[in-house]
Write a structure and sequence with these properties.
The structure holds two protein chains of two kinds. Chain A is α+β, with helices and mostly antiparallel strands. Chain A has 22 helices and 25 strands. In chain A, strands 12, 15, 16, 17, 20, 21, 22 and 23 form an eight-stranded mixed sheet that branches. A five-stranded antiparallel sheet of chain A has the order 5-4-6-8-7, with helices on one face. A four-stranded mixed sheet of chain A has the order 1-11-10-9, covered by helices on one side. In chain A, strand 4 and strand 5 form a beta hairpin. The chains are: A alpha+beta, B mainly alpha. The interface between A and B is large, with 68 and 67 residues.
Chain lengths: 730, 325
């Protein structure tokens, strides 16, 4: 017993000696080339065919490798091969199966065929599904129930193996999109493009009904023309018509390879009851593999020992070299051995642990904004002296996201393309001051929206060229050279005056906010799913903005389900919505206003139910074009149309503010890529030194506490003794 | 006594059925299976086919209480309520809507919850009762007045304040403990000390006031005067006789919570990053995971009923006049 007690004491002392006493990491998780981060919500899915969420892509992007990836440093975002040997080649065919030239008219193209050749020699992470016995047979497939009975943790599978990545794995994953048990969120979308995917889904659903729920369904046994293997390292995907945006999907985990062995392994009886599934334990070829998956506490990625030859990029965007982002050019990736993600649900402990040096990076919440950021003389965000002293660095970038206020175009008051309705929406576009909104509610972390396309996406126009003339006007004094560009043109703009909005409102038939025909005040209805104190102040702000035009705004707050239901039925009048780019192409934003994609009736993503035939025609032309001046011209016309029609108030593009400690290197915000961990480098010695400096325990409060307690107990004891004696004397 | 226990456990069946029915009705009054499917499938590109597929895969494609299309008993048995609820009575919780096994989650998460709740409960009980007896000993003096004022002040402060204050002072300023997090095994102690301390301080106000009120009532009774007249020390009077005779109301409040210690604390676990059961239900409500919600509500009700039976049994141990028949 004494020996055990001594061992425990020794372990505690040893742990305390090697790292600060308040370190949240065990000795095994500390030291070496480790990155420390956190996740606020446990991932729901880690199956690349099913996952469609940012917080899941943080893991999946580093474990699975689709054939393409975004260049880490170059801007605008540029696709490049990842496991592919080169960029995919595409061939077009007409309805009769005749091959067409690359510049063929989209209307003639009945079929597109993408050929992707992958690099040979890429190997999977170690995993029990690849393990083989001495006779060369799979070690754990099939597995007897009594064998599985002794296995409680995934690490109990003591034998692992690996194999080379082949084209079959990519085709297998495309088939998995139709698997009824996988429930891929993009099945509906991809069924419109990939040949035969819809039929495959139907056939698989029928087959699945006929067998037990957890049984293995051999999806390779079903006919499917949409994707096929050409040779060991080459496969082709066949699409209906022309869909140039498909290459962007090839950079998403949906099109990453999944080995059939993994499905066979996980679909064995008893596996699901132990939470062993592809949705829980991924199998990839990426730079890291998921070594520990306890999403209630920690998720740990370890360097994949079989990771292919991959090197830090040798070229980047202008300014990258000066920023030190090319210092590691040509070095073998990944540069960090282990990444530890801890569950941190609350912002306050996350922020405090970042300041103690236990997290390498952090976002900035509203609560910590003033502590971290101050505005410099130019109005630009800068770090506070305290942050600078700690060696913390700030990186900001506009997110490829648009938040907008939408008008239901089917609504009899605010909807439709009639002149009065258009003017009413334009008046509101001017009156609702999103610059003020960004300042109050986002601490200045946003760019006011000028159109449907966010910065960083082709089609977005910078500067005065990109300003929405319906809402803003130029604002330069005659001799003010600072606000003029090189050509002498005015570069400064400001929101149109409220008088313009009032005039538009009167022309719309609501002078002074009253219906000219009935004399009744104009009342509009705003539907939202937001709740809580912050939402209340936001709604109050909206009411005030509408009140500037003497319009009464009634806020109809509801839960998210009811809100979605209203949107589907088209019973909302005004609403808030947003869209985060799937890929950096204007089609991914402009399709949100495409008539045939309207929400009411078709269930599409056009929540405003906007339908302008001219816009729709331009969209159909634009979506098949390559990025070129011609495409830009078409986009300009489309943007002009939606500015005039104003089905949305282009509210803002949020800006991402990220902090990191100085010991973390090679950090450049890249909001399209998910495989960023392999580029990171850390200086563990610097981190350990800072952690030790920032976390010296203060012992004097302990002495004071003991003294205080003694000070409280002693009079009580004395009083007790006195009273006891008094009783005896009496 | 055995008859009594069996009878009480049989009473539990209709209670649990009722709880199940109520949970089921309340949940589906707010959410439809379509809403659940949409939450699970995400916000983008969700089609009606995908929603139908999700419902079919998770067994939510059946009518709630009555299946008009079925024959005979299947009209009732082939429904969502029967399919989803009856298995709970044999503690078969099944998988969550995200596919993970609920029983496994409960088994894993209950230990960290217990690691905080048990020491908090035991040390708290000891500290609160001792403090209350101390106040009773000094009743009517300035020490008693100061103690009561302190208790009222402590119980007037929000529990969240203790958590954030504790983290700020002991974690951030003094660097004594990790601000949040958890490690299993021997490393767990340093993650548990601060939440236990914070829980103890947060609970002392109302508990000590409650116990003081109980003891004040007892201290005026004849047996106390007799004990003192026999020359017993005040400590012995308080801890043996007063405490012993105040046990029935104490046990009423205490024993019933013992089985529920497994379920943990929402705020403490959430802020300190303890991977217990406390936040499991709230997370499930937010994710509209009905499978977890009904399992946790069922488990909570079951443990509460067990707690009540244990409370009745405990009365027989402290008061020989109580007979369970």
């Amino acid at each position: 017993m004494a020996k055990i007690a001594f061992a425990i004491l020794a372990a505690c002392v040893l742990a305390a000696c090697t790292q600060p006493v308040n370190s949240p990491y065990s000795a095994a998780e500390s030291g070496g080339s480790v990155l420390y981060s956190a996740f606020g919500e446990r991932p729901k899915h880690l199956d690349p065919a099913r996952s469609y969420s940012e917080n899941e892509y943080v893991f999946l992007g580093n474990i699975y490798e689709p054939p393409l990836q975004y260049h880490y440093l170059k801007r605008p975002y540029e696709l490049e091969p990842q496991t592919a040997a080169g960029m995919p080649t595409v061939r077009y065919f007409d309805a009769a199966g005749r091959e067409l030239p690359a510049d063929a008219d989209s209307a003639r193209i009945a079929l597109s065929e993408y050929e992707i050749r992958i690099k040979p020699g890429i190997r999977y992470q170690p995993h029990p599904c690849f393990a083989r016995d001495a006779a060369g047979k799979p070690r754990y497939i099939p597995m007897r129930p009594e064998e599985l009975a002794g296995i409680d943790n995934f690490l109990d599978f003591t034998e692992t193996g690996s194999r080379e990545l082949t084209a079959d794995d990519y085709v297998y994953q495309i088939r998995r999109l139709a698997h009824p048990r996988v429930q891929s969120p993009i099945l509906g979308l991809m069924s419109d493009y990939i040949v035969g995917l819809k039929d495959l889904a139907k056939a698989l659903a029928e087959a699945a009904k006929a067998q037990p729920k957890e049984a293995y369904l051999d999806i390779n046994a079903f006919d499917f023309e949409g994707a096929y293997v050409v040779d060991r390292h080459t496969y082709r995907v066949r699409l209906k018509g022309k869909y140039p945006q498909f290459v962007y999907w090839l950079a998403m985990p949906f099109f990453a390879p999944v080995p059939e062995e993994a499905e066979r392994f996980y679909r064995q009886p008893g596996m699901a009851a132990k939470n062993f599934s592809l949705d829980w334990q991924p199998v990839g070829t990426g730079a890291y593999y998921l070594a520990e998956n306890e999403p209630n506490r920690v998720m740990r990625l370890e360097r994949n020992p079989h990771y292919r030859e991959d090197f830090y990029p040798a070229e980047g965007a202008p300014g990258d070299r000066e920023a030190g982002l090319l210092a590691d050019a040509g070095k073998r990736l990944p540069m960090v051995d282990r990444v530890v993600y801890s569950l941190e649900k609350e912002d306050v402990p996350y922020w405090n642990k970042f300041l103690q040096g236990y997290y390498d990076a952090s976002g900035i919440t509203s609560d910590s904004f003033d502590q971290a950021i101050r505005m410099n003389a130019d109005g630009e965000p800068d770090l506070t002296p305290d942050m600078r002293e700690r060696g913390i660095q700030l990186a900001t970038t506009a997110r490829p996201t648009l938040s907008y206020m939408g008008f239901n175009m089917l609504d009899p008051v605010v909807g439709g393309l009639s002149e009065p309705a258009r003017k009413l929406r334009q008046a509101l576009s001017i009156a609702i001051d999103y610059e003020e909104f960004i300042s109050i509610f986002l601490n200045g972390r946003g760019l006011v929206g000028q159109g449907p396309i966010p910065p960083g996406i082709f089609g977005y126009r910078e500067g005065i060229e990109g300003v929405n003339p319906v809402v803003f006007r130029t604002d330069c004094a005659e001799r003010d050279s600072r606000s003029r560009g090189n050509d002498g043109g005015c570069q400064r703009f400001k929101r149109r005056p409220l008088e313009d909005a009032r005039r538009l409102l009167a022309e719309a038939g609501y002078p002074n906010g009253r219906d000219a025909r009935t004399g009744q005040p104009l009342t509009l209805y705003f539907d939202t799913a937001a709740s809580g104190p912050e939402a209340k102040s936001r709604m109050d702000w909206f009411r005030k903005q509408f009140a500037k035009l003497d319009i009464q705004l009634v806020v109809r707050a509801t839960d998210y389900n009811r809100f979605q239901d209203k949107m589907r039925k088209g019973s909302a009048q005004i609403f808030e919505w947003g869209w985060n780019a799937d890929y950096p192409d204007p089609e991914n934003f402009l399709f949100l206003l495409y008539g045939p994609h309207r929400k009411v009736g078709t269930g599409g993503e056009n929540a405003a139910n906007y339908q302008n035939p001219q816009f729709d025609r331009l969209f159909e032309r634009m979506k098949d074009m390559d990025n070129s001046p011609e495409r830009q011209a078409v986009i300009d016309r489309m943007v002009h149309l939606v500015r005039e029609d104003a089905p949305w108030l282009f509210a803002f593009h949020p800006k991402s503010f990220g902090l990191r400690h100085g010991w973390v290197k090679n950090v450049k915000p890249n909001l399209m890529s998910h495989n960023l961990l392999k580029y990171r480098r850390v200086d563990p010695a610097a981190r350990a030194a800072y952690q030790a400096r920032w976390n010296r325990p203060m012992l004097w409060p302990l002495g004071v506490t003991v003294a205080l307690l003694a000070g409280m107990i002693w009079p009580a004891v004395a009083a007790y003794r006195r009273r006891q004696k008094a009783t005896a004397n009496a | 006594m055995l008859n009594y226990i069996v009878r009480r456990l049989l009473y539990a069946i209709p209670i649990l059925l009722g709880v199940n029915l109520l949970t089921f009705a309340l949940f589906f009054m707010v959410n439809t299976p379509d809403d659940m499917a949409r939450i699970h499938l995400g916000a983008k590109h969700v089609t009606e086919d995908a929603i139908e597929g999700w419902k079919r895969e998770h067994g939510y494609d059946k009518p709630l209480f009555f299946n008009a299309g079925a024959e005979g008993a299947a009209k009732v048995s082939d429904t969502l309520f029967v399919e989803k609820s009856l298995k709970l009575f044999v503690l078969d919780f099944g998988p969550a809507d995200d596919g993970r096994d609920i029983a496994r989650e409960i088994k894993t998460r209950m230990w960290p919850s217990l690691a905080i709740a048990l020491p908090t409960f035991l040390v708290g009980l000891l500290a609160y009762i001792s403090f209350a007896l101390l106040l009773v000993f000094f009743r009517g003096t300035r020490l008693d007045t100061a103690g009561v004022i302190l208790c009222v002040a402590l119980m007037s402060i929000s529990g969240l304040f203790y958590v954030i204050g504790g983290q700020y002072v002991m974690g951030k300023l003094w660097h004594w403990f990790p601000i949040s997090g958890y490690q299993p095994g021997l490393d767990a102690w340093k993650f548990l000390l601060m939440p236990v301390l914070v829980s103890l301080v947060a609970g002392i106000g109302d508990s000590a006031r409650f116990y003081r009120a109980l003891f004040i009532e007892e201290i005026g009774k004849d047996y106390v005067r007799t004990a003192r007249a026999k020359g017993l020390s005040e400590l012995r009077v308080l801890f043996r006789h007063v405490l012993g005779n105040a046990m029935i109301p104490i046990l009423t409040g205490v024993v019933v919570v013992i089985p529920r210690l497994f379920l943990g604390s929402l705020i403490i676990e959430s802020f300190f990053g303890i991977p217990g059961l406390g936040s499991y239900t709230i997370d499930a409500i937010q994710a509209q995971d009905f499978a977890i919600v009904r399992s946790m509500v069922f488990l909570g009700s079951l443990l509460y009923i067990i707690g009540l039976v244990l409370t009745d049994l405990s009365y027989t141990l402290v008061d020989p006049r109580v007979r369970l028949e």
